[in-house]
Amino acid sequence: MTPKPPAKNPQQLLEQMLLIRAYEEAIVNGSAAGRMPGTCTSVGQEAAAVGVVNALAPEDLILTNHRSAGHLLARGADPGRLLAEVMGRRDGYCKGKSGSLHISAKELGVVLTSTIVGAELSMAPGVALAQSMLGRPGIVVCFFGDGAACEGSFHESLNLAALWNLPILYVCENNHWQAFVHRREAMSREHVTEWAAGYGIPARTVDGNDVFAVLEAAQAAAAQVRESQRPYLLETLTYRTRGHLEPDDQGYVDKAELAGWLARDPIAIGRARLLADGLLSPAQAATMTDKVASHIAVAQAFAEASPFPAADELTRDVYA
Q1: d(CA 200, CA 149)
Q2: Which residues lie across from 61 on neighbouring strands?
Q3: Residues 103, 115: Cα–Cα separation, whole Å
Q4: Three-class SS of the chain
Q5: What Å distances lie between residue 168 and 128, 130, 228, 275, CA to CA?
Q6: Residue ranges per structural domain of the chain
Q7: pTM to 2 decimal places
């Protein structure tokens, strides 16, 4: 499997967001029913993932974090294999050994996902340096959250990228929450992009719930990284509308703030834009939703039918 080519029309962007939402809701429901382990979701952040990934070329490499489902699915990952991996089944991308938090998919250019906050930031300069030294054309795209931006690995990574002129597109999905702590309790700045200036790195903050705005900003940012072979920081302002991990009652979340962001749901915004512009009819929207639901149902059946790995698989494909 090769990375999915960028969406050819706006309707495909909406369909990808719907697929991500349906996939993660399947995990939420499966976890509540005891059929799947709890995991970290990115519900509410779909536009950020879809907009950025659709600005990438097939040769670009991705490093991401524990909220990676959107990046993987937008890149073309099979939801059945992703669900199988979450469930620890043999037909998952890593043969059931990674769960949902450490999936890698070489064929999609996804070097790693990591549940260690900021780990992808530590790895990105090395991956980009290898790309440059080997003369490979692709840029490196590093997704991280505002929590990782408050760690030392963020500043070390940006410093090296600027010093060594590395082709890295840093993408901060600022979802306002750092596990159970609001960003205002941990950040000395309103925007992560403010930190980029100290390293001479160009940066931009964009509405992360508007998939079309994210796509335009990511296309411009990726083009600049390709041309300059230097880093760029794109911050997508969005909101995680579910808890840190499943299950989580979000008792620590301000209900008025959550309601405000739920009213700015990225899928609703994208759908309304397409309907208003005459690029989507209500019937087409309903058909699209049904298509995605069917796709996820097939994916769930595939994952549940996949066997657990045999005992002799325990140390296979694992570094000692």
Answers
A1: 17
A2: 140
A3: 10
A4: CCCCCCCCCHHHHHHHHHHHHHHHHHHHHHHHCCCCCCCCCCCCCHHHHHHHHCCCCCCCEEEECCCCHHHHHHCCCCHHHHHHHHCCCCCCCCCCCCCCCCCCEHHHCEEEECCCCCHHHHHHHHHHHHHHHCCCCCCEEEEEECCHHHCHHHHHHHHHHHHCCCCEEEEEEECCEECCEEHHHCCCCCCHHHHHHHHCCCEEEEECCCHHHHHHHHHHHHHHHHHHCCCEEEEEECCCCCCCCCCCCCCCCCHHHHHHHHCCCHHHHHHHHHHHCCCCCHHHHHHHHHHHHHHHHHHHHHHHHCCCCCHHHCCCCCCC
A5: 7, 12, 10, 36
A6: 10-304
A7: 0.93
Task: Pull the structure tokens for residue 245.
Answer: 């991990």
State both tokens at 95: 């043969």
- Residue of higher predicted confidence among 40 and 287: 287
Given 3.40.50.970, 3.40.50.300, 3.20.20.70, 3.30.465.10, which CATH number is that of 10-304? 3.40.50.970
Tell me whether strands 177-178 and 181-182 are parallel, antiparallel or unpaired: antiparallel
pLDDT confidence of residue 48: 97
Q: Which residue has the tokens 């070329």?
A: 57
CA distance 238 to 173: 7
pLDDT score of 5 more than 80: no
Residue 39 has pLDDT above 90, yes or no: no
C-alpha–C-alpha distance, residues 306 and 78, integer Å? 14
